[in-house]
Design goal:
Length: about 100
């Protein structure tokens, strides 16, 4: 299955009501075929009627280098940094003492 077909036939209908699920599909597509898609291919995908307006906009932003949407999608499911966990733990402990 070609990745553009995968986006249209599987990802778009399955994630219509969930931005979180849509971003997970986009992350999979970025990791697998970022080098295969040109912006012309993304534009052609965006013209498909099976995508919602949100899906079109986020798809375009996901394949643009340096966009905040792309950075967010790529950060999904990444390991939390230890110092961030310790800060949250300290805040939680301080709130429990009060």
């Amino acid at each position: 299955m070609v990745w553009s077909d995968y986006i249209i036939t599987v990802a778009a209908p399955h994630s219509k009501g969930s931005a979180k699920l849509w971003f997970r599909y986009l992350r999979k597509c970025i990791n697998k075929c970022d080098v295969l898609f040109s912006m012309k291919d993304v534009e052609a995908l965006c013209k498909n009627d099976s995508l919602t307006p949100f899906q079109r906009v986020s798809l375009k932003a996901a394949f643009e280098e340096g966009s905040q949407t792309r950075a967010h999608i790529l950060s999904l499911n990444s390991k939390a940094q230890r110092n961030r966990i310790l800060l949250v733990k300290e805040k939680y402990e301080n709130n429990q003492r009060q």
